[in-house]
Amino acid sequence: MPSTVPDGFLATPTLGRRAIMNSATQNNKNFGAKITVLLADDHAVVRQGLRLLLEKQPDFDIVGESSDGLETLRAVEKIRPAILIVDLAMPQLNGVEIIREIGYREIPTRAILLSAHIDEQYVFSALRSGAYGYVFKGSAVDELIQAIRRVHLGQHHLPPAFFEAAVDAYIEKLEKSVEEDGLNPLSRRERQILQMVAEGFSNAEIGTRLFISTRTVEVHRSNLMRKLSLRNSADLVRYACEHLPPPVENNRKH
User: Fold this and answer.
1) How wide is the angle at C-alpha 227 spanned by C-alphas 223 and 229, nearest 5°?
2) What confidence tens digit (pLDDT) does each residue in 54-70 have?
3) Is 0.90 surpassed by the pTM of this model?
């Protein structure tokens, strides 16, 4: 197999990826037509295993295999399958570069990247290259089957663990923001009173609105200043203005 780059390898796109995807949608969604799939992996045993598993699906048609990057690119250009399942680590041309090249050549094939890596950097790199799906090699075959069908419909597929990690990171960010806003140690009642103090209500007015005694309001204010290490009412008002949302207009009693 020659190692040189074939002529036209760096062809410049003229229609753009949206036109390519629109073309793929029109060409690959014929009613009753099977989803054509090309398998690209440098290990023959992996390709054979995938073929055996995917051929059991009545709506899949495995139309070819390839063992290196350049061979894969030539096969995609010739066969134009609906779906390319390609390993990330391919000789001569890796999976990400194959996907990029498919986009440059305006070939209406949607790619799913198989990878032994679950790191965010690999997932983002795949998405930036134009991949529609990313499947971890340690996943069950059912996930790959689902990914093929989703990608064929024009949807993206990412590993469940990636979504879980994103949710965990978001929750951690929210928890951190709550800790940083300084209100975390306060009770629900103390937060209510803090807002009313900021809006200029007196202890008696706060008690009337919350249906508690003026003395109870005073105790809550004292606890607020102790928890927040504040010295006086002016400090309490200043703190409330800095940490609470802006008050609603005309909320203060005139």
Assistant:
1) 110
2) 999 999 999 999 999 99
3) no
